[in-house]
Amino acid sequence: MIEYALNFAFVCAGVSLLINLWRLSFGPTIADRVLAVDTMAINGIALLVLYGIGRATSMYFEAALLFAMVGFVSTVAYCKFVLRGDIIE
Amino acid sequence: MEFVIELVISVLIVIGGLFTLIGSFGLVKLPNLLMRLHAPTKATTVGVGSILIASMLFFWMERGTFTIHELLITVFLFLTAPITANLIGKAYLLRHVDPHDDLPHTGEAEGWATFDSRDPEEQPKDPGKLPQDEKSNDLN
């Protein structure tokens, strides 16, 4: 039963990534693109955790944690750059 | 008992997948950025949180030892999503919103704090259009 649920969630996360890619390509403003990249990072975390469940190994947990941190820092850095023209003032 | 736990894990995984899909659908469907901000920062965060709780339960069932380290990612995401949304909203306001025309009057002499300049000695910001100005415009 978990197999079917996992397959369903894989499809959902993959479709979400494609939709985010559309917004990343055609987003009218810079903020849209930053938001799309941030959402892609979160969907990537979901995919990693699902794959970890599928393989029954907790090795992917560290990767997901790193992905969460790096995604947050990169989004903040990009927004800061757009806001102030500088990342570390 | 085993079946019940599997059922709970499966339902959590399906809910998580659906919520990530709903979040991304909102990202495409909603009309402007300040509305679009809501979909990924709320729906997607809940979806990932659900998947992480499913993962926690799965490894509890698999290994027999209960660990909460998946909750680290959940807590981290729940803490950072509002900060990200705030910063993206500020960046959008700065580049695409005119504080005089698009925002309501602050009710004070100073303008919106988001539009403060880097140098505090610079001229005070425009507080925006007063309500009576808008009324006179409507009459004309």
Automatic annotation (TrEMBL), chain A:
Organism lineage string: Bacteria, Pseudomonadati, Pseudomonadota, Alphaproteobacteria, Rhodospirillales
Entry GO terms, CC: plasma membrane
GO MF, one annotated term: sodium:proton antiporter activity
- What's the main place this protein lives? membrane
Protein name, per record: Cation:proton antiporter
Keywords for this protein: Antiport, Cell membrane, Ion transport, Membrane, Transmembrane, Transmembrane helix, Transport
Which InterPro entries does its entry note? MrpF/PhaF-like
Q: Does the keyword Signal apply?
A: no
Compartments annotated for it: namely: Cell membrane
Q: Where are the transmembrane segments?
A: 6-22, 34-53, 59-83
* Organism annotation: Thalassospira mesophila
How this chain sits in the membrane, per its record, is: Multi-pass membrane protein
Q: What PANTHER family does the database record attribute to this sequence? A: NA(+)/H(+) ANTIPORTER SUBUNIT F1, NA(+)_H(+) ANTIPORTER SUBUNIT F
**Family recorded in the similarity comment:** Belongs to the CPA3 antiporters (TC 2.A.63) subunit F family.
TrEMBL record, chain B:
Q: Which Pfam families match?
A: PhaG_MnhG_YufB
Which parts pass through the membrane?
6-28, 40-60, 66-88
Domain of life from the UniProt record: Bacteria
- UniProt keyword list: Membrane, Transmembrane, Transmembrane helix
Lyase as a keyword? no
Key word Magnesium present:
no
Q: Per the record, where are the segments of Basic and acidic residues compositional bias? A: 116-140
List, alphabetically, the NCBIfam families matched. CPA3_mnhG_phaG, PRK12674.1-5
Give the protein's recorded name. Answer: Cation:proton antiporter
